[in-house]
Amino acid sequence: MNLPKIIFLVAGVYGLVTLIPHFFLENRIGVTDPPAITHPEYFYGFLGVALAWQILFFVIAFNPRRYRAVMPVAFLEKLGFGAAAVLLFIGHRVQTQILVFGLVDLLLGALFLYAYAVTPDRQDRLT
């Protein structure tokens, strides 16, 4: 198994492990980290979209060369949460735990760019 496959496989597994439990934690989040979630459609919508991205990471892992063009977009997915977490932490608006998850996303995003760089373009044919 080559490195891009491993990177996207790990990202997909990590995402599933960290996201799926949140589907069952709406009420608990409101108690442990008030205020309560007042717009569940945003909460579950975010989880649904994020979960779909994890599935895409598995698709990329299955055939990185074929899906190479999607890798920079996958980086943007990681950048979105990672940058937001860092900026919100700097503004004292989120706890350190959120910063840590954001930094993990930024690391995965950097690895996605690395995977893009080392994955041959699909049109490079070996004869």
In short:
This protein is mostly helical and 127 residues long. It has five helices and no strands.
Task: Give a description of the structure.
- The chain has 5 helices and no strands.
- The chain has 127 residues and is an all-alpha fold.
- The chain has one domain (3-118).
- The longest helix is centred in the middle third of the chain and has 23 residues, at 40-62.
- The two termini are 22 Å apart.
Task: Tell me the β content.
Answer: under 5%
> Rounded to an integer, what's the Rg over CA atoms?
17 Å
Nearest-integer average pLDDT: 94
Structural class: mainly alpha
For this entry, give a set of tags:
71% helix, mainly alpha, 127 residues, 5 helices
What topology does this entry show?
Layout: H1 3-19, H2 26-32, H3 40-62, H4 71-90, H5 96-118
Helix pairs in contact: 1-3, 1-5, 4-5
